[in-house]
Specification:
This protein is α/β, with parallel strands linked by helices. The chain has 2 domains: 230 residues, Zn peptidases (Aminopeptidase); 149 residues, Alpha-Beta Plaits (2-Layer Sandwich), CATH 3.30.70.360. Helices cover 32% and strands 25% of the residues. It contains 10 helices and 16 strands. Strands 1, 2, 5, 6, 7, 14 and 15 form a 7-stranded mixed sheet that branches. The protein has a 4-stranded antiparallel sheet with strand order 10-12-8-13, covered by helices on one side. It has a 3-stranded antiparallel sheet with strand order 3-4-16. The longest helix has 20 residues. The relative contact order is 0.22.
Length: 393
């Protein structure tokens, strides 16, 4: 069951704020349960950590938000602006029964939100090369999602008499997928990526500071380095991933049909129609049928960093996490917040969870955990954020 809580403010004219988290979690891969240090759904507190699926994604944020609100209530705090809490129950499968319905309900009530904060980028330490300080990246946009199916038919037959070279369904599909993989959509250090690097550049060490501070000169060199890493390459372009291929059902039969799925994560500025046209041009073969799978979404609008709401989040991070650099970033995955773009121009995706390089595989992986000290920081972050955002003044 998805939940929407409303804490009424004293000023009906003040635009409300929305804190988001989701209740559902991804499953644990069958057969890997024994790889966990604790039972994966136990929520066990051990060695200074809360262990279990959802500790990061996204029960930590949910519990911290509720704890922060309860602390404010216990202290007699009365918000000037209304505070909403939205907790979807199906984020991991698209949010159609949760966040979509909550956003629709608020729109029907003519609600226009001052800002939204949802799960997102983290406080990383030692993850960004050349940066010795922790970095809190605030997601000001998220990529879109599009899966394109390719189908091609050919003459089936016995494997003892294969068709002329390159004319079978599998060879045709293989050639088309090779072209798609080779002809990636163009990338570049622009938009959100450029703003992020320009923000962190003064804090970088050595040559990194020089290069990022002078992208007009070192841009091609920096871009080549960034494209060599999967996560950094994803910040620069609409990515292309060949994810599914199906053809044939017997070892001595040449199949008469082949099908493949290619998944794209759209950079802000690219569109679903534009990507589909790119696939058609790249395949360049009328024998192929192409169509988009349901569940696609455009890249989100880019929320401004000069807004009071972004600056409030910025100040709150630096207050609760002293010595941390704050910069805008691009969310390469999808969140429930994308469903609220019709009722807010200021949507930010940030989880105040500390992460070192060795922690990153825990996300949707084995031994997901959050430290008890960090969990207390999450509570302080949301407490201070709501206190400042909704204070009477």
């Amino acid at each position: 069951m998805s939940l929407l809580y409303t804490w009424r403010g004293t000023d009906a004219a003040a635009p409300p704020i929305l804190l988001m988290a989701h209740q559902d979690v991804v499953p644990v891969a069958a057969g890997t349960e024994g790889d966990w240090s604790v039972a994966p759904f136990s929520g066990e507190v051990k060695d200074g950590f809360v262990w279990g699926r959802g500790a990061w994604d996204d029960k930590g944020n949910l519990i911290a938000q509720l704890e922060a609100i309860e602390m404010l209530l216990a202290a007699g705090f009365q918000p000037r602006r209304t505070v909403y809490l939205a907790f979807g129950a199906d984020e991991e499968v698209g949010g159609q029964r949760g966040a979509v319905q909550i956003a629709r309900l608020l729109a029907e009530r003519n609600v226009k939100l001052e800002f939204v904060i949802d799960e997102g980028l983290l406080i990383t330490d030692g993850v960004m090369p050349g940066l010795s300080k922790p970095a809190a990246l605030i997601g000001i946009a998220e990529k879109g999602y599009l899966s394109v199916v390719l189908r091609v038919a050919a003459t089936p037959g016995h494997s003892s008499m294969p068709p002329p070279q390159g004319t079978g369904a599998i060879p045709m599909m293989s050639a088309a997928l090779k072209r798609i993989d080779d002809e990636q959509l163009p990338g570049g250090i622009r938009g959100v990526a450029r703003e992020m690097f320009e923000t962190v550049a003064p804090e970088m060490d050595g040559f990194g500071r020089i290069a990022l501070s002078n992208l007009w000169l070192f841009g091609p060199v920096v871009q080549k380095q960034l494209e060599a890493g999967a996560s950094t390459n994803a910040m620069l372009r609409t990515t292309t991933a060949l994810t599914m291929v199906n053809a044939g059902n017997k070892d001595n039969v040449v199949p008469g049909r082949a099908e493949a799925t290619v998944n794209f994560r759209l950079l802000p500025g690219d569109t679903k129609d534009g990507v589909l046209q790119h696939v058609k041009r790249t395949v360049a073969d009328d024998r192929f049928e192409l169509y988009a799978l349901p569940g696609s979404s455009e890249a989100s609008p880019v929320s401004p960093t000069q807004s009071p709401s972004y600056q409030l989040i910025n100040r709150t991070v630096r207050e609760v996490f002293p010595g941390t650099i704050v910069a805008p970033g691009l969310m390469i995955g999808a969140t429930d917040s994308r469903h609220f773009t019709a009722i807010s121009d200021h949507i930010y995706r940030f989880s105040p969870v500390r992460a070192r390089p060795e922690d990153l595989p825990r996300f949707h992986g084995t031994n997901e955990r959050v430290s008890t000290a960090n969990l207390a920081e999450l509570v302080r972050f949301y407490h201070r954020l709501v206190e400042q955002a909704a204070a009477s003044r």
